[in-house]
Amino acid sequence: MKKFEVLLKENGYKMTGQRQIIWNILLESQDGYLSPKEIWEIARQKDKALGISTVYRSLQIMDELGIIRCLDKKDEISKYELASGEDTIHPHLICMYCGKIIGVAENLFVSDSNAIIHDKYNFEVRDIQIKYYGICSECARKSCEKQVV
User: Residues with Cβ < 8 Å from 142, sequence gap 6 or more?
Assistant: First the structure.
């Protein structure tokens, strides 16, 4: 938490009560992927005056400071997850039916590709987003059940 407050102050922002609420929601998130609307709905339970635009602005600031990552979903609303350094660069599996997001724990080939890109192109990679779109096991099972009936 202290890191967030320090980053805000170093970049000319204040830790407001509403930013604190939004930050706590992200910290407490069970699945780690929340949309701005989902964050706003939870935040409104704690502060009825907190507006959706405050959520968007706060998320934008947090993303710029590198403490959260925005996962843009194809033709859908973005979701956010906490960032905690190099280990947060990982692929995501996105179900095309239910929208479920699964973060792949292993970063697979990301570390090797960063080194190759840096050495070959003298380019410093700051962000990588690898997304695989498909069907999660639950939706696949439901689809099979419908075909059997």
Answer: none
